[in-house]
Protein 1
Amino acid sequence: MTDNQYMTLNNGVKMPLVGFGTWTLRGEQGKQVVLEALAAGYRLIDTAHMYGNEDIVGQAVAESGIPREAIFITTKLCGTRAGYKLACQGIEESLDRLQTDYIDLLLIHEPYAEAAEMYCALTEAYRSGKVRAIGISNFNAREYLAFIENCDIIPMVNQVECHVYYRRKELQKTLETHGTKMQAWSPFTEGQKPIFHEPILQALGKEYSKTSAQIALQYLVQQGIAVIPKSSHRKRMEENLNIFDTTLTAEDIAQIHQLETGKTLFGWYDD
């Protein structure tokens, strides 16, 4: 991967702009999909306690033959580890299941009431070298601003729902003002919208010899948003990575922005 395929977090750590999502993957078949993604060139693998698949991600990374330092592993602590002691326990569990000495990015999965306590555990793990970067997930702007009032370390990432229908410019602006990068889960809307058949994306895809999916990802990446698409098909995996040879114009981006609805498709947020 070349330098333009990474973003630099507020502590200097470089994170791939395009990662591979795993939330539906389970068992041996799931492990094989992760191995296929690594073989296709993905170097960021996104998992979570909630997904119940950290073990297969760890196995795939170990079996891939790719040096551990070349792979960026993200995981998240969920509500079953809400609290300082539980979060400390959860970090050790993740390290064990992932078969690794360190996690590249560790997030709090949702804005739990105990998020501040959990973040103390993340901060300690970061300072001890068990974690290279820390952050949050699914925090809206109001929740984020309240959260960072008591943070010794500003979160490096806020991973949220973001796609062409829900661009969240104001949230990104708020995050970037304080040094936090935005990362998009559901860049293809998880089937909630006919994104691959959108006329605007199809027309631009034809112009640039790209698919609608590639244009949808490029739209976000070009505006400084990391993305975590998911696919079980090798051809689509490769297509989703192959977006860095295209530059959308300001007019192209304005066209795509016409798809904006300002509304979540998953009911996570009250923006």
Protein 2
Amino acid sequence: MSVGIAIEQVSYRYSPEEGHALNSVQLNVHPGDIFGLLGPNGAGKTTLMSILTGILKPDSGVIEYFDQGRKITGRDISRVIGFVPQDFAFYQELTPLQNLAYFGAMYDLPGKEIRKRSQELLELLGLSAVADRKVGSFSGGMKRRVNLAIGILHKPKVLFLDEPTVGVDVQSRQAIVDFLIRLNGAGTTIVYTSHHLAEAEKLCNRIALIDHGRVIACDDLDSLLKTNNSRDLQSLFLNLTGWSYRD
């Protein structure tokens, strides 16, 4: 059974002098969703992702995780979530196998399980042939797949992805998207940010649009398009967030 998330009135400022990065955000991620957190630069997406994964603590509000109606608390939360950040989160001088062994130990996985799981993931992600090469020599798409393998090594029930296909070629993007669809089909709830709106339209069943730290729309994509008289996700995005430059 997949895990769901309740986000209740979450607010956050990076300093008292700044405005809210998040302002009274309220969302529900349903079990089994591929849930898109979308918005312009500076909208608050990565801040919310950082709060959901425990990197930041909200100034106010509550995040609750549920597994089959049971609330998950304390250290159990860290065991059910995986996070694939936008920045590469591995050691460039190590091989994929060495990186997975290191992070598997951090997850407290037994050595035998780490080795078995590593071989499975490298095969699934097309990295078996380079398992013993230093990651620093890899292409951008290969590095993205190593990042993904590390994030799902411990079989999380919820996977957070911050721009998982940024800077990769078409083939790598398609391979990652197809893999995520299969992962979700096996029961993993996915929360995802991206500026690739065509990719998000293909991947996500539910979407929240965030701008200036507030949720401005949240529903399944078909309902959002119909309600806002938009032909696709890009036109919906522009209709709701405007055409001005965002830096």
